[in-house]
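Ligand: manganese (II) ion. Inputs:
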Amino acid sequence: MNTRHADIVHAALDSFRIELPSWGFANTGTRFGKFLQLAAASTIEEKFSDAGHVHAVTGVCPTLALHVLWDLPEGVVSSDEVKRLSAKYGVRSGSINPNLFQDQQYKFGSFGNPDPIVRDAARQHVKDSIAIARALDCRDISLWCADGSNYPGSANIRQRRAWFIESLQASHAALGAGQRLLVEYKPFEPAFYHTDIGDWGMALLLARAAGPAARVLVDTGHHYLSQNIEQIVAWLLAEDMLGGFHFNDRRYADDDLTLGSIDPYQVFRIFHEIRLFEHETGRRADIAYMVDQSHNLKGKIEAMIQTVTIAQELFAKAAIVDHAALIGAQRRSDIVRAEATLQDAFATDVRPAVRDWRVARGLPPDPMEAFRESGYLERITAERASTRAGTTSYA
Ligand SMILES: [Mn+2]
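Predicted complex:
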């Protein structure tokens, strides 16, 4: 790694922030069962405390995504308590995530439910979530709808699309100045025949229909196998419609594994498309980077630190791609040179530069070691073991 590369890595890391999910610190499991961790967070205060420790050792996680149903059960009334915790633990509230999939009334859908009373209830919940976001000074309301059907003929796909447009427009109308509505898509699960927002094209059309402050959210686990996610990212960037990411990795479906644990080159390629866009347009892509992972076996806090570290390394690798050489090779149709330009950057060991950046910013050179040496995990394991309420939540 030369000096020019080191400077690029430092500048790139200065601009990179990643949001942690409150639900990532709580006990989760699969539909077959849960293996509870004594140190898992079961209250909103514990989630803020854990996120605060990840931020303390990494320095790049200043915000915590909140889930309205799990974190703000009293609605906007809970926001004063959240503000207090935010100040106490040094982590701001991040994206606000409404919950349109857990209540019994959503058995046959939320925005796409044939019952107008349920559609109204879903709309009201999103409006309440927007009010919470305003009270907490949060920009993004991140919407994922589980709506879909399991059997052919059981749902009117076009009718449901129209209901979605109505509800998204109503939600968009409730946004305050500067707020955004992020529309997430997913091809299947929990619905296994059709999902109302099944891919990026549907999400893009619905976001456009919703209004000017709506954008698409790309959850890396929400694609069919082998889908070219970086191409989707490139198209959304070109359309000025990429609002944010939910990062995770997977081997089969929406596995919610640690980012880059299965296919780090794919994450690199996604970051590369963003960096190339910024290089060519001369403007910063306004993207909310967020983690959406569920660690069933790994320790929650260590898994988050590992995720953030990997994200930084892959972002740094994408930052040192030689754009001029790449663009030149592409224009000459020099395929091998163009491909090698990406491979060279990916193969570069950026860890020393990332480490130097941390030291220069007054952060621990090795966040995982710093966390392990802090004694925090031992302390909360003992404390929480005595008060364990057994509260769980799913991501
Ligand atoms: Mn997600």
